[in-house]
Amino acid sequence: MTSQDCGCVPPTPELSAEAISWIIPYDDKSNLIYESSNRSIDTFLVERTSEKEFCGGDECGANCNLETINLTSLNDSLDWSISASFNNRIEINPMADTVSEIYATWRTGDNNPFTSSEAIITSFDSQFQWDGRILSVIKIDCIDSVNCSSYKMKDMIISKEEGLIQYIDENDEVWNKKLN
After folding, report:
1. In degrees to the nearest 10, what's the CA dihedral of 152, 156, 162, 163?
2. Sheet containing 114-115: order of strands
3. Is the pLDDT of residue 98 over 60?
4. pLDDT digits (tens, 9 = 90+) for 20-61
5. What is the pLDDT of residue 97?
6. What average pLDDT does range 141-157 have in this prediction?
7. Cα–Cα distance between 73 and 127 in angstroms, integer?
């Protein structure tokens, strides 16, 4: 039986332009540099992967595009990723160890993101001011100091235009992206 026999419409396998726009800030970059509030410097290596993953139901699915950016710290044991998947979904740390990493998902076009934990608040802000510019950002904040005490990155701000622009580490140190 085919999907046409069932009368179903398989999901669109291509990523939406909005989902792709959250991956573009990492194009043509091999590393990103962050500076902490105590003036320490950390460099993250940037790696992009493109894959296909099955999406939809058993009788009505498609091989959908998946774009992932992995950031790996050279100085610390931090790894971070952002993925565009299922046509319009942005996932932060989709393969997270939920004990030590924040996980969040946001469907583009929906200003009501959801996360994997009650201890985390995720919000979208289309008027975030940073370095004299207005950016569209996803803010992920851990609001429960007990449940978040083991997270390597407690809070983060990810911009559609600039990528990861700020995070707070497990020692409550604020790290900001340095402009190249």
Report:
1. 50
2. 114-115, 104-107, 89-92, 79-85, 61-73, 41-56, 31-36, 174-177, 163-169, 153-159, 133-142, 120-130
3. no
4. 999 999 998 999 999 999 999 999 999 999 999 888 887 788
5. 61
6. 82
7. 29
